[in-house]
Every structure is written in C-alpha cells, then in structure tokens.
TrEMBL record:
This is Phosphonate C-P lyase system protein PhnK. Coiled coil: none annotated. It comes from Rhizobium setariae. InterPro entries: AAA+_ATPase, ABC_transporter-like_ATP-bd, ABC_transporter-like_CS, P-loop_NTPase, PhnK. Pfam families: ABC_tran. Belongs to the ABC transporter superfamily. GO terms for molecular function: ATP binding; ATP hydrolysis activity; lyase activity. Keywords: ATP-binding, Lyase, Nucleotide-binding. GO terms for biological process: organic phosphonate catabolic process. Residues 7-252 form the ABC transporter domain.
Length: 258
C-alpha cells in the first residue's frame, strides 16, 4: 500500500461569503510524507489545513482518505461518528497554542491517557504505562505525570500536546505552526524532536508554517500559497533552491536577507 496515496485532494475550495479562503487546491499525500504549506499571513494556510482536517466544511472539492483496511473513503460521505473516530485515532491535530489541544486542568498523564480511553482502552495500568512511555518520548520527566499542563513551560506544553496526539498511533497528523510562539532555542529543540518522531513513526504530516527554515528542516514537499491559491508546489529543496514563481522567489530572498 506504500505506493498508493494516503490522502487525495481534488479542487478543494473554501469561501467566507464573497472572500476566498482557499481555492482549487489539489494534491496527493503519500505515506510517510511531510508536506509543508507556506505563505504569508492571510494567504489561506490555516483555512486549507482546517478544511483538510474537516474542522471547516469545504464549499467544493473532494478529500479522499485511505483507511487502515486500504479502502479509499470520501471524507464528506462519512457519518459524523465515523469522522469523529478518525480524528480521535488515525488523525492528529497539533495546534499552535497548546491550550487549544490540551485540557489545562487535568494532569499530564490524563491528557495523554484520555485519547486512549476515547478509543476504548479501559485498563488503568496500561493507560498509565502508555502515558509514562509517551511523556519520556517527548522528554518530559516522569515525575511530572501528575502535574497539570498549566504548571508547564510553553515548550513542555507543546511536547505534551504532541504526546497526546501520537499515543493512538495516528497515520496522519495536521500541524498548525507547532513551533510558533516559542523562543528560538525552544523552537529548535522542538523541531528536532518532531523530526525524529515523524521519521521513527513513519508519519504523514501536513504542517502549516510561515517559517521557510521550519519547512526546509522538516518537510519533503512544499506548497506555496498566495491569496488563497497554491501558486507553486514541489520538493522542498527544489522550491527553496530554485523557486519558479516570482512570488516564491521574493518570499525566499526576503527570508535570506532577514
Ligand atoms: N472566519 C473568517 N471569516 C471571514 N474571513 C476569514 C475567516 N478566516 C479567514 N478569513 C480570510 O481568509 C483568508 C485566508 O485566511 P487564513 O487565516 O487561512 O490565512 P493564513 O495564511 O493562515 O494567515 P495567518 O498566517 O495569518 O494565520 C484571509 O483573507 C482571511 O481574512
């Protein structure tokens, strides 16, 4: 199945009244592939990510996903319950602000364990063991398992949010500026950790970032957005080293000069 796409997107569009959010986006995502969506503020990155992950309902187009049994399913034709199950198990969503993806008033262990309970795991010992294991994989000391995330630093909260997402072994993870809003040194460490996990787990990832250095480090392929349109896509190194569109050239050179 490795030679079949995990996600197939055709002609996806989302409008806000008369304003374009994103329009006519098409691409295939392959198992183990990391796709970065880049572009300046207001270009439609978040709208596209939210439409792909069904947090927003698209106005046109089709999203097909290859289920674990190999069947290609049209996301729009799934029942609400099927879609919810998918989002709790096979998909993950890492928000820029960890508070949007965590429950701030329950313990770190419960934040991770909760996703397992949501898929039917009822055995306290095994849930606690999985939570402990995941905390250490994201470099959170085990003696913090009973602390609430409100007692954590920004970087720790983000690592906890990642653990909560990955504990159910998802195959596709959406990320919205996961290193945004953190100090530069914390960002670098988190990016390193993310890159390692994505590689080890063979995850497929769609990551929104306005930071081309982040895209360079973590992604295989890149889509450049402008005014809701994908204006250029290709292998990350190709797009950054040899941008074809004048707008991409401008984006790349402005970063290099900064
Ligand atoms: N809820 C909304 N209602 C109306 N217009 C919206 C809404 N959300 C986004 N838009 C518009 O859609 C376009 C794309 O916005 P979007 O937030 O997707 O861009 P972005 O690239 O993610 O920007 P940023 O990097 O600043 O988050 C913009 O013109 C924006 O004003």
């Amino acid at each position: 199945m490795e030679n079949l796409p995990l996600l197939k997107v055709q002609g996806l569009s989302k409008f806000y009244g008369g304003r374009i959010g994103c329009t006519n986006v098409s691409f295939d995502l392959w198992p183990g592939e990391v796709l970065a969506i880049v572009g300046e503020s207001g270009s439609g990155k978040t709208t596209l990510l939210n439409s792909l992950s069904t947090r927003l309902t698209a106005d046109a187009g089709m999203i097909q996903y290859r289920m674990r049994d190999g069947a290609m399913r049209d996301i729009a034709r799934m029942s609400e319950a099927e879609r919810r199950l998918l989002m709790r198990t096979d998909w993950g969503f890492v928000h820029q602000n960890p508070a949007d993806g965590l429950r701030m008033s329950v313990s770190a262990g419960a934040n991770v364990g909760e996703r397992l309970m949501a898929v039917g795991d009822r055995h306290y010992g095994s849930i606690r063991a999985a939570a402990t294991d995941w905390l250490s994989r994201v470099e959170i000391a085990q003696d913090r398992i009973d602390d609430q995330p409100r007692a954590f630093s920004g970087g720790m909260r983000q690592r906890l949010q990642i653990a909560r997402n990955l504990v159910t072994s998802p195959r596709l993870v959406f990320m919205d500026e996961p290193t945004g809003g953190l100090d530069v040194s914390v960002q670098a460490r988190l990016l390193d950790l993310l890159r390692g996990l994505v590689q080890d787990l063979g995850l497929s990832v769609i990551i929104v970032t306005h930071d081309l250095a982040v895209a360079r480090l973590i992604s295989h392929r890149m889509m450049v957005m402008k005014d809701g349109h994908v204006i250029e896509q290709g292998l990350t190194d190709r797009v950054l080293d040899d941008p074809r569109e004048p707008y991409t050239q401008l984006l790349v050179s402005s970063i290099l000069q900064a």
